[in-house]
Design brief:
The structure holds two protein chains of two kinds.
Chain A lengths: L1 H20 L10 H15 L3 E7 L8 H18 L7 E4 L2 H18 L10 E3 L4 H14 L2 E9 L4 H10 L3 E6 L2 H10 L2 E3 L7 H4 L4 H29 L4
Parallel strand pairs in A: 1-2, 1-4, 2-3, 4-5, 5-6
Helix pairs in contact in A: 1-9, 3-4, 5-6, 6-7
Chain B lengths: L1 H20 L4 H38 L5 H21 L4 H36 L3 H17 L8 H38 L10
Helix pairs in contact in B: 1-2, 2-3, 3-4, 5-6
The chains are: A alpha/beta, B mainly alpha.
């Protein structure tokens, strides 16, 4: 019953706030990694270099689906903004279903930019199955395809270390976000810009994915506040011997 | 077509969710199981499409004589070789197991070994690249945990071991739970956006 209540409450808030945010401009706090992501998108169009967006190896049929969908939402905007560039973006995934959606999302971006004819199905790739197979397949993209920035947005475990190393070796910028704790710690230690925790889910709002993304950030903040109050309340009641 | 794709995706999502929320209604659970089984079948088909996509990418690299095309050729030879052997011998056969245990697993293990060195190097470079308070805390915590859990030649240092245990069991667990709650909330809202059709990563829209 509690989960239905949380779901219904979150859904209600998201709907209300999405309509509200359509009328008012989004006010977002500064996240240096996402500010650099905006710059990387602009630079790739201006200097004719390519962006590599990697969505990790999270499947859509398990708990990592959320991070995969967040990565796809960001990819949709990135592909729309950079599809007219001399070197359109390339996307990699380590899960078959995610790979198919990657291609579909890239195609949607090209369609939105009005350049359907420039879309190449090989720009969305399944580089390998399993963490290391995926990383081994994605590493050469940085070295061989005139990449100006790597964006890791999705589910990455320890294999993120191999991708950051590949980027470091080529002196290519890397912005990384993962829903996995091991992946986050590795990205924090080895990437120039790492997003921690739920910041992965904020990427869409920061690159202009629309009011539903900014509304979902507000709902996340509200729900987080409720969770904090519930935790503090529970601790107080336990301390007072009431539960 | 785009509207049909959205209707199918939203309806399937809501039905699967209803099966989780109301397990006592058997019709919903049956529909949920059916939809998940279909998704698994699609996953198998998508794997084949993914392999073909991979082959297309690397064939193009060889045709255009791009950088690293020799590795692409090796990949294609092994991809089709293993695929053909799988068709001939079936996946449970001794030959297939030999390929898995003698080739794939050692290669993955070697990548894991490379990763260990890479991470050590990244840890050393961290303070040079980003010399701030959080990086300092990160490196100090990593060193403390390593000192507390490693077998030292002169035996464990009691104070370090107890502080390390406390950091692991109190600070790290608390922080990890906080991050995971944030990730769970983010996943919930992302899923809701897809259910409402605000994000549609399908149907070319």
């Amino acid at each position: 019953m509690i989960e239905i209540a949380i779901f219904a409450f979150a859904a209600f808030l998201l709907l209300i706030l999405t309509f509200w945010k359509r009328k008012s401009p989004a006010v977002l706090r500064e996240l240096p990694a996402l500010a650099r992501l905006q710059r990387a998108i602009g630079v790739s169009v201006e200097d004719g270099s390519r962006l590599h967006v990697s969505l990790g190896q999270g499947g859509l049929l398990n708990a990592q689906g959320g991070s995969a969908l967040a990565g796809l939402a960001a990819l949709r905007i990135i592909s729309e903004r950079t599809s007219v560039s001399d070197k359109p973006p390339v996307a990699s995934a380590g899960d078959p279903l995610l790979g198919l959606l990657t291609q579909d999302t890239l195609q949607a971006g090209y369609h939105a930019a009005g350049v359907d004819e420039l879309y190449a199905p090989t720009s969305g790739r399944i580089t390998g199955l399993g963490p290391f197979g995926f990383a081994a397949g994605a590493m050469p993209i940085t070295a061989n395809e005139n990449i100006s920035a790597n964006l890791l947005l999705g589910h990455f475990g320890v294999e993120a270390g191999l991708l950051t190393e590949a980027a470091e070796r080529e002196s290519v910028q890397l912005i990384g976000a993962s829903d996995n704790l091991a992946g986050q710690s590795i990205l924090f230690a080895s990437a120039q810009d790492a997003l921690i925790g739920e910041e992965l889910f904020a990427a869409g709002a920061y690159i202009g994915a629309g009011p539903s993304h900014t509304a979902s950030l507000t709902v996340q903040d509200l729900l987080r506040l409720i969770v904090i109050l519930a935790l503090l309340g529970g601790a107080f009641l336990k301390f007072a011997g009431m539960i | 077509m785009r509207i049909l794709a959205a209707v199918i995706a939203i309806a399937a999502g809501l039905l699967v969710l209803a099966g989780y929320f109301f397990p006592e209604i058997s019709v919903l659970v049956t529909i949920q199981t059916l939809l998940l089984n279909w998704a698994l079948l699609m996953l198998a088909a998508a794997t084949l499409v993914g392999a073909l996509n991979l082959a297309a990418v690397h064939t193009n690299k060889i045709r255009r004589r791009e950088k690293g095309n020799l590795y692409s050729a090796v990949l294609l030879v092994f991809l089709f070789g293993v695929f053909m052997l799988g068709l001939i011998f079936k996946p449970g056969h001794e030959v297939m197991r030999l390929l898995l245990n003698g080739l794939l697993l050692p290669v993955e293990a070697s990548l894991m070994a490379v990763l260990a060195v890479t991470l050590l190097y990244a840890g050393v470079r961290l303070l040079r690249r980003r010399a701030d308070f959080t990086s300092l805390i990160f490196v100090a915590t990593a060193a403390l945990i390593l000192l507390g859990s490693a077998t030292l030649p002169f035996g464990n240092i009691p104070v370090v071991t107890s502080i390390s245990l406390w950091v692991k069991q109190v600070l790290a667990v608390g922080g990890a739970r906080g991050i995971l709650i944030g990730v769970a909330l983010g996943s919930l809202l992302t899923g809701l956006r897809v259910l409402f059709g605000a994000d549609r990563p399908y149907g070319g829209n």
